[in-house]
Specification:
The protein is mainly alpha-helical. The protein is built from 3 helices and no strands. It is flat, with a radius of gyration of 30 Å.
Length: about 110
């Protein structure tokens, strides 16, 4: 599937978006993939499995957890907008609120 920039440029030129897509995403390919009958799998007792496969031990992957605490927030995509920041009602700055404000008292100008 084309990216947003390619789609916008194609629309600007007045061409069809379907020319940019792979034919694998068309309904004709989908119908062709499922046109033949799909038979259910038989009983597990009737399977013929080679001895080479049954004798090979299956081990877990050799992956170590990274050091440190796991992240608690989801990583945002490049195109995803950020949330609005907090604004302090005491000093008017962004990034904190009134209860965590460490700025000196701001005098109220009438």
């Amino acid at each position: 599937m084309p990216c947003a920039h390619a789609t916008r440029a194609t629309c600007f030129k007045g061409k069809s978006l379907y020319d940019l897509c792979s034919p694998y995403y068309t309904s004709g390919y989908w119908r062709g993939a499922y046109s033949e009958a799909i038979y259910p799998v038989g009983r597990e007792a009737d399977w013929v499995v080679p001895s080479l496969i049954t004798s090979t031990p299956i081990l877990p992957p050799l992956v170590r957890r990274p050091p440190g605490r796991p992240p608690t927030r989801r990583k945002r995509s490049r195109h995803e907008s950020a949330w609005s920041s907090r604004k302090c009602t005491r000093c008017g700055r962004l990034g904190h609120n009134r209860s965590t404000c460490s700025n000196p008292n701001v005098s109220q100008v009438p």
